[in-house]
Write a structure and sequence with these properties.
Elements (H helix, E strand, L loop, with lengths): L6 E5 L4 H12 L3 E6 L2 H13 L3 E6 L5 H15 L4 E4 L14 H29 L2 E6 L2 H5 L5 H21 L4 E8 L12 H10 L8 H12 L10 E4 L6
Parallel strand pairs: 1-2, 1-4, 2-3, 4-5, 5-6, 6-7
The chain binds NADP nicotinamide-adenine-dinucleotide phosphate.
Length: 246
């Protein structure tokens, strides 16, 4: 029970890495706020938590919407009176080579992946400052560190999250709030299900551990950073990529 009595908001918790994390955090004793734009999958995650004896609730949230993010935080405060952990895990891809990328593709990916983190952080940081404690985890990517063909919008957003993380680690550390990032490699989730088998094989070959990641690999990294075991870890970018360099 490494998160006993903690209240954790996890965005994008209806699917993939977020869902695995929500189930793990609930098992570790946290009350989990399953925040997702996808009502069906989000409600399913929340129901699985409840059926397993865990606590928390689902909230429909488009993280690119500042007002909705504030409402999510207000609902959480209303129910539990505190927010211990925020994981900015929700994200999307809309890939295209730069010459073909539309302004809409650029804006949506930046607005969800990068501004979405800003919105949720602004919504929870007031309560965290008042509590004098909190943990914020931003989900970057190996693509934010090295770039990737066809993902200029996504790579820019994920690199931006690293700058955001390092800045807030400095701003908020003195308030008792730790801010870190996780940079996953290739993880088998619905997001990567459209990647051609051939490319996944190449990624596997390039990975020293010779496999692709599973959602649980990232969920356990989040768990470490969210727990008190990481109480001196602040401003870090934790790679969860099997040693892959792209
Ligand atoms: P996923 O299975 O697609 O899950 C993402 C979840 O976020 C989905 O439930 C999705 O809903 C939701 N979402 C999308 N837009 C949202 C919005 N505006 N507001 C709230 N929720 C929203 O993806 P995943 O692979 O688990 O990815 C989780 C995070 O890890 C993302 O930030 C991703 O960029 C990052 N990441 C993934 C990999 C990888 O290889 N999988 C690698 C590096 C980093 P819908 O299903 O309706 O879209």
């Amino acid at each position: 029970m490494r998160l006993e009595n903690k209240v954790a908001v996890i965005t994008g918790a209806g699917s993939g890495i977020g869902k695995e994390t929500a189930l793990l955090f609930a098992k570790e004793g946290a009350k989990v706020i399953v925040a997702d734009i996808n009502e069906k999958s989000g409600r399913e995650t929340a129901a699985e938590i409840e059926n397993a004896g865990g606590g928390g609730f689902f909230v429909k949230l488009d993280i690119s919407d500042n007002e909705q993010s504030r409402q999510m935080a207000a609902e959480t405060m209303g129910k539990y009176g505190k927010i211990d952990v925020l994981i900015n895990n929700g994200g999307i891809i809309q890939d295209a080579l730069i010459l073909k990328m539309t302004g809409e593709q650029w804006d949506r990916v930046i607005n969800v992946n990068l501004k979405g983190a800003f919105n949720c952080i602004q919504a929870v940081v007031g309560p965290m400052v008042n509590q004098g404690s909190g943990v914020i985890i931003n989900t970057s990517s190996i693509v934010g560190l090295y770039g990737n063909i066809g993902q200029a919008n996504y790579a820019a957003a994920k690199a931006g999250l690293i700058g955001l993380t390092k800045t807030l680690a400095k701003e908020l550390g003195r308030k008792g709030i730790r801010v870190n990032a996780v940079a996953p490699g290739f993880i088998m989730t619905p997001m990567t299900s459209s990647v051609p088998e051939k490319i996944l094989e190449v990624m596997k070959e390039k990975t020293p551990l010779r496999r692709l990641g599973e959602p649980g690999d990232v969920a356990y990294a989040y768990l470490y950073l969210a727990s008190d075991e990481a109480k001196f870890v602040n401003g870090a970018v934790l790679g969860v990529d099997g040693g892959l360099v792209i």
